């Protein structure tokens, strides 16, 4: 499947953010099945809103392990195509391997930057982006690019994390890092996972990109694990740049962060294990 990866266009994936996500790719590879299982309700909502069908051309941006696009590949069938794309080449390799393992012959994998999508105008019927737009340095540019590569009547769905207060599964980790190190998470000047957490703001951005039939809905995306140790093995690994930070800390500091998080997770732990609320916003729209 590796030969299906288009060579990277100059630029994407470079820079500190791309490098940090490249470092996190191994964790995403290890936990890809879990990521898809947890995001299943969000993926279903995105595909319901965009309705990919036989013969459609679908683009997934910031695909990571490619779960949404792979789910769409069944719906577009042999006459359709799905392009899985990510800024980080290491992520596209994971997506390519998963597509090959699934026998998805209608899937191609490309290195693409969601703020400068190296694809022609009007090339796709559907664009999907799960939990990537909120990390774009300029979401307006990314939305303009999504609109540009969609044909008239094309459909778009994006998922971003909802308010931080509704997402203790990740907020607890951020709070623990800040409490122990004094470091704000995300660092100043960098968009974090909660940068598009306001539903009316997301609606306005979609409308502002010249899209119609705009709709934003909350979809529960809780995190359920048997024990705190399962959370600690999974979440910091998937937290991209933060995973790099934690890995670089002295062992006693990392241990203090772990202890702080463990205390906070105690209140979400019951007889059946750890239940941490999570909420995504699924925004969808159509090109006039």
Short account of what is shown:
With 288 residues, the chain is α/β, with parallel strands linked by helices. 44% of the residues lie in helices and 22% in strands. It is globular, with a radius of gyration of 18 Å.
Keywords:
three-stranded antiparallel beta sheet; single chain; disordered N terminus; alpha/beta; eight-stranded mixed beta sheet; 288 residues
How would you portray this structure in words?
- The chain has helices at residues 15-30, 32-38, 40-50, 67-76, 89-101, 139-149, 168-181, 199-208, 228-238, 241-248, 251-266, and strands at 5-6, 57-60, 81-86, 107-111, 124-130, 150-161, 212-220, 223-225, 269-270, 273-276, 279-286.
- The longest helix has 16 residues, at 15-30.
- Helix 5 links the parallel strand 3 (81-86) and strand 4.
- 44% of the residues lie in helices and 22% in strands.
- Residues 1-14 have low confidence and may be disordered.
- The strands form 2 sheets. It has an 8-stranded mixed β-sheet, with helices on both faces. A 3-stranded antiparallel β-sheet has the order 8-10-9, covered by helices on one side.
- The chain is an alpha/beta fold.
- Helix 1 (15-30) runs parallel beside helix 5 (89-101) and helix 7 packs across helix 11 (251-266).
- It starts with a strand and ends with a strand.
- It is built from 11 helices and 11 strands.
- The radius of gyration is 18 Å and the shape is globular.
Order of H and E elements: EHHHEHEHEEHEHHEEHHHEEE
Can you summarize the main beta sheet? 8 strands, mixed
Describe the strand arrangement of the main beta sheet, using strand numbers: 1-4-3-2-5-6-11-7
Strand tally is: 11
Separation of termini?
Answer: 36 Å
Helical content (DSSP H or I, runs of 4+)? 40-55%
Integer-rounded radius of gyration: 18 Å
Query: Could you say which structural class the secondary elements and strand pairing correspond to?
Result: alpha/beta
Number of helices: 11
Q: Overall pLDDT, averaged?
A: 91
Low-confidence stretches: 1-14
Quote the beta fraction. Answer: 15-25%
Q: Categorize the overall geometry.
A: globular
């Amino acid at each position: 499947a590796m030969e299906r990866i288009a060579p990277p266009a100059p630029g994407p994936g470079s820079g500190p953010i791309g490098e940090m996500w490249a470092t996190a790719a191994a964790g995403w590879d290890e936990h890809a099945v879990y990521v898809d299982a947890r995001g299943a309700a969000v993926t279903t909502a995105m595909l319901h809103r965009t309705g990919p069908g036989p013969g459609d051309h679908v683009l997934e941006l910031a695909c990571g392990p490619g779960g949404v696009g792979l789910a769409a590949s069944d719906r577009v069938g042999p006459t359709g195509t799905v392009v899985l794309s990510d800024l980080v080449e290491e992520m596209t390799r994971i997506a390519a391997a998963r597509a090959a393992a699934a026998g998805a012959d209608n899937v191609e994998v490309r290195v693409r930057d969601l703020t400068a999508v190296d694809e022609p105008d009007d090339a796709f019927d559907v664009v999907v982006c799960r939990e990537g737009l909120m990390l774009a340095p300029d979401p307006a540019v990314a939305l303009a690019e999504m609109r540009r590569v969609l044909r008239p009547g094309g459909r778009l769905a994006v998922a971003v994390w909802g308010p931080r207060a509704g997402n203790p599964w990740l907020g607890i980790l951020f709070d623990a890092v800040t409490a122990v190190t004094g470091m704000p998470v995300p660092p100043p000047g960098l968009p974090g996972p909660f940068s598009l957490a306001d539903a009316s703001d997301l609606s306005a951005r979609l409308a502002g990109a010249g899209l119609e039939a705009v709709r934003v809905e909350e979809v529960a995306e809780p995190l359920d694990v048997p024990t705190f140790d399962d959370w600690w093995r999974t979440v910091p690994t998937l937290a991209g740049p933060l995973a790099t930070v934690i890995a670089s800390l002295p062992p006693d500091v990392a241990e203090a962060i772990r202890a702080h998080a463990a205390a906070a997770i105690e209140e979400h732990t019951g007889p059946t294990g750890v239940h941490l609320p999570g909420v995504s916003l699924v925004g969808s729209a159509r090109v006039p």
